Amino acid sequence: MIIGVPKEIKTREYRVGITPAGVRSLVSRGHRVLVERGAGDGSGLGDAAYVAQGATMVTAGEAWAAEMVVKVKEPLASEYGYFREGLILYTYLHLAAEPELTKRLAAARVSGIAYETIDNPDGTLPLLRPMSEVAGRMAVQVGATCLEKERGGKGVLLGGVPGTRRGRVVVLGGGVVGRNAATIAIGMGAQVTVLDVRADTMAYLEDVFGGAIETLYSNPTNIEEVVARADLVIGAVLVTGAAAPKLVTRELVGKMQRGSVIVDVAVDQGGCIETCRPTNHDHPTYEVDGVVHYCVPNMPGAVPQTSTWALTNATIAQAVRIADRGLLAALRDDAGLLHGCNTYGGHVTYEPVARAHGLPYRPAGDAIGG
Q: What is the pTM of this model?
């Protein structure tokens, strides 16, 4: 199979879809890999490193002309012209927040395989996990910076110092993002509260962190009480493949102290805080009622020498499977990969995405004739 790796064009997106090691894994099995010139520069991976492992350096158009295109982020409008029937697009898609992209992929009969909905038999999301780990840790890091007075924050140091109060961090969701956010916040000395609806998740967090963390059942009353007095709120809610529920209302944001900070990691799925809208690394923040909002969907793109390796370590196995067996055989043999099929043959094949946009839904198994 011919695999293309175009350069990411989202604002300050420095990651790349495949490392030279991933190229070697594919080339050694008889596949051809076309990498756009300069695609790895932002991750410290020069063209020579790719050529040394068997890649051919090409233009963007040539990379997109491959049978399977491996990316990091969803295509932008300027890339829609590359869509065509028979193209396998293997990347993060987050289609529940992208109605136009969803319609374009279906209309062009692109086979859209979304990293974020490929799952294991136990329901965990192995290709989403590494970026959730990075984003969760970064959320506290950027939140702490945004709390500085010169950046619009109230001027609170999360860890405090003797004789002063510690910063109050509220994490909405105790999954992978929330657990990693709690790890960093606790490490910085903050007072941390995590809200979740799953008793086993809260028990696990208390087992791991002991008295360093407070867990609360996620309901409107508890959310209102802890968010109103928080210095930093981190949105870490995930409903696989679907739009995130709005847990924090505009009214509640208005009750927060001026200079408080919100970091919504769920923004790539629409966000779990009503006042959140996507920003970018050039202009990452804005204020609503004096509350600083940081809502960058591709947050891990700021640390590409960590996130590129973490991502491609997780995605390369399925890329090899698709290349070796062909897409249809790979989908029929692997239920987890089939769950990653969001569009196929002109259909939306992932129900939460179809529901989010009011589009017809056809199960992926039916669409591929499995």
A: 0.90
